[in-house]
Amino acid sequence: MWSDEEEVHFGRKREPIVETWEEYTHVYRSYERFMTISEHDRKETVRVFFIEQDVPPSEDGVLDFVPTNMLSAMFLHTHKADIKMPSGEVDKPVIDDNHDGTVSIRYDPKEEGIHELAVKYNGEHVQGSPFKFHVDSISSGYVTAYGPGLTHGVTGEPAQFTISTKGAGAGGLQMAVEGPSKADITYHDNKDGTVSVSYLPTAPGEYKISVRFGDKHIKGSPFFAKITGEGRKRNQISVGSCSEVTLPGVISDQDLRSLNASIQAPSGLEEPCFLKRMPTGNIGISFTPREIGEHTVSVKRLGKHIANSPFKVNVCEREVGDAKKVIVTGSALQEGKTHTENVFSVDTRNAGYGGLSLSIEGPSKAEIQCTDKEDGTLNISYKPTEPGYYIVNLKFADHHVNGSPFTVKVSGEGTNRQREKIQRQRDAVPVTEVGSQCKLTFKMPGITSFDLSATVTSPGGVTEDAEIQEIEDGLYAVHFVPKELGVHTVSVKYKQIHIPGSPFQFTVGPLKDTGAHLVKAGGPGLEHGEQGVPCEFNVWTREAGGGTLAISVEGPSKAEIEFKDRKDGSCDVSYVVSEPGDYRIGLKFNDRHIPDSPFKVYVSPAMGEAHKLEIAQFPSGPVQADKPAQFMVRKNGAKGDLDAKVVAPSNNEDDCFIQLIDQDQYSVRFYPRENGIHAIHVKFNGVHIPGSPYRIKVGKDDVDPAAVHASGKGLGDIKTGEKTDLIIDTCNAGAGTLAVTIDGPSKVAMDCTEVEEGYKVRYTPLLPGHYYMTIKYNQMHIVGSPFKIKCTGDKLAEEGGQETSSVVVETVAKVSKGGNRTGVILPIFKSDASKVQSKGMGLKKAYLGKQNQFTLNAGDAGNNILFVGIYGPKGPCDEVFIKHTGRNQYQVNYLVRERGDYILLVKWGDDHIPGSPFKVEV
């Protein structure tokens, strides 16, 4: 507590005390540096928000300006490209934004010879830029080669190019690919004077492609292609630099834990700050100054200001972080070596206060070390394990320092990856009949069955609860009896969140379609793992029919794979690896990858002391987006480093802020920026602690992908060149992110428009073949996704590799308005209202302002819905509470505030129960 003596001493019992930096300069300093580490496998998405009408019009589609009214300190998507011609002159190609996260570059060459294409993103070369290509005359009679595989590619994916021999006369064609890995070459004679060539690189680096005709190199040969690592492994550290201000007063350690503090900047931005015991015995607050001017610090206990709160703190110009004043030195930002500490220095002495964040992404997850010299300078080193090009982002106070992002060429030896594979034959499951016992099994070890729930929705739209039984430890089965033929939707939830794989498709009667696209897989072993411990996951092949399931695990060590067939169209797979690191789990059915395969899994070192850690004060219900939330972590004597990150439904990752509260207790603060289910990864010495990752729901909207349905001609047989559409019904599914992706032989022109029941997607295929349409709602497949669509007709475009087209829409909540299709169809109830029994004083007499009560017994009355309504002299009563106490027994409470005669109606379904309507005197 704040003592009276202190209050009298400061002489301001009710007025806030104004503190200035001049009075407290001896305690205003950078007092703490902390480190958090996170990783992810995809490129960081950069966004900016500004007022639309301020954007200048652009004729060529290239948005290249800096807005003055940005709402967040991020970078703008800018794409620039230059072509250096053989004469030395620079030409400009045409850049087309495909509006799906990619851009296309078109160029009409004016000269023959070697050209250099420089592609820049936010002012910096993209990975592999500048690209070299050779331009030849069409009428030269020479053999020429063209295509992306001559300049760039990605490991594990075929790199393709075309050789043209039109008009070149007779001669033998020879091809060779040399590089860091053996590359299998395949080719196809197109019978039109061209040959399509494909090679598969399995390691990143530079590949030399030699093409000879009649024992002589063709023009431009040998070509050099830059092959980057599959996926982008990312590592990040944050070094916090906070300010500290002492607040007057004396407070006990016990009271310190019950307080929370926030600081409001002059602009109105309010964020939490941390309270800490100072060496003087007083408490202090720590925060990162972002603005100049007077800040207000509020310290509250149970929502009420403590004595002297709010406090005033003034921030002057020299305290606010300025990224332009950070000095970075060292050759490690131009080139580096694998398996070596590559060191550079950062000087923040003249840059004010601000957090320093460093992220490195490239072919491998580079280990980062940070040495703080305690004088505002730091030495930072990174240690990559694979050669290739890396992107280094260095930010101070949320802004890039000069030169960032840096492109670094890393050379040296890579690591050896080992692969283990098993194959198992899967028999088709017998056809399920109406009225038979249906079973869907799944394994989820280490949970309580009380938190599991399941529902089954029939093709007619009737949703009913399903029974869940625990067959053996950790193995559960959903039981239901279908009443009609067709595709049923089975939703299985744990703590109100769909388990991996849910919602499931379950066909009653003969299967309409079979194939790899109908196989599902899910479980912790496809998300994360631990060295030396079995990593388990489920595979459901029931809907795919019979076939061969191939499972492969590739990574730093060989895996021991175990397979257990549950004989019901599902199986349990576990694998054990002896070394930690990044692994790829490939699942193929009849030689085709199942949806979302291959899965990227980080296997952490053995848990060690991480098992000692425990979570406290974790939010029990949903938290709000754009508001910070926090929980506590107790170390319980474990020695090591704690780090945490939060992964949003869109897969965007953000670091959590970790603050030492006590010698053994930490506060972990996270700031969700979107609605949906987030995963919070808490690691100790790089290893997940028990229960991590923790799932938490953000926002009140219950977005349910099980309620989304797709229908229409666009899911059936289609023809090339014809516009076809389908309706995606989102009624009663909540507001979420709808993502539609079509993979097939050609790109498809696709658009999405809002209609009454949801969204209409329209697309036009150009080549015949099979197309696969993936429909996801908040990153989760809807039932039936991906859909296999057969396309026939003429070829209206040139054939190439598989093409992907996608559209993403932020939906609004929709409710069914009736008509042909309604979102919810009421089940057919069988009940008898005359068998409902009622008793209690509340059926005859009621008292003002008190809870009046009666009970109902509908145990013998079948199944239906109970309706209770009370109407008085001036309208309905204030409130009615109905509580189901089990087995169709109900307790009803109601409250009235006006005297007079009331009418009490009790209905079981559409029929009054005996005695209803009742007359009640108040």
Provide a descriptive summary of the structure in words.
This protein is mainly beta and 922 residues long. Helix content is 1%, strand content 47%. Strands 1, 20, 21, 22, 23, 24, 25 and 26 form an 8-stranded mixed β-sheet that branches. Strands 2, 19, 28, 30, 33, 34 and 35 form a 7-stranded mixed β-sheet that branches. Strands 36, 46, 48, 51, 52 and 53 form a 6-stranded mixed β-sheet that branches. Strand 14 and strand 15 form a beta hairpin. The protein is globular and about 105 Å long. The model is unreliable at 1-55, 65-78 and 819-823 (pLDDT under 50). This is Filamin-A. Pfam families: Filamin. It is found in: Cytoplasm, Cytoskeleton. GO terms for molecular function: actin filament binding.
Gross morphology: globular
Structural class: mainly beta
**Which CATH first-tier class of the largest domain would you pick?**
Mainly Beta
Helix content: under 10%
CATH architecture of the largest domain: Sandwich
Name the beta content range.
Answer: over 45%
State the helix count.
2
User: Between the first and last Cα atoms, what is the distance in angstroms?
Assistant: 51 Å
From the alpha carbons, calculate the radius of gyration and give it in angstroms: 33 Å
Unreliable segments (pLDDT under 50, ≥5 consecutive)?
A: 1-55, 65-78, 819-823
Q: Mean of the pLDDT scores?
A: 77
Largest sheet: 8 strands, mixed
Q: By CATH's scheme, which homologous superfamily of the largest domain applies?
A: Immunoglobulins
Q: Give a count of the beta strands, DSSP E runs of length 2 or more.
A: 81
Number of domains: 8
